[in-house]
Specification:
Elements lengths: L3 E5 L3 H4 L1 H8 L4 E5 L9 H14 L7 H16 L14
Length: about 90
């Protein structure tokens, strides 16, 4: 089995003693930490931001199953529609 490379921010959930110990026990997993305040580097962060804005904002779920069904429905609908992504970021000169 090959190595799994995981991109993560430097939040405490990714850098805690427990996480660090678990990763040490699983040498097949490599974590690439994104720079602080650079969530835009990790593409999934953009998806999470859109999910939060379109689905989760101002919603109160009574069960985790209800939340899961809502998020899964959003993901299915979103994956059926082609979207063009235009990046406006430019490196500093």
């Amino acid at each position: 089995m090959g190595k799994l490379i995981y991109a993560a921010n430097t939040g405490s959930a990714h850098t805690s003693r427990a996480t660090t110990a678990w990763l040490a026990e699983h040498p097949g997993i490599e974590v690439l930490f994104t720079p602080k305040h650079a969530s835009w580097v990790n593409p999934i962060e953009s998806v999470f931001e859109i999910l939060a804005r379109q689905v989760l904002k101002h919603v109160w779920f009574t069960t985790t199953d209800e939340c899961d069904r809502t998020v899964q429905a959003w993901a299915r609908e979103r994956s059926q529609t082609r979207r063009t992504v235009r990046s406006t970021w430019q490196a500093a000169a």
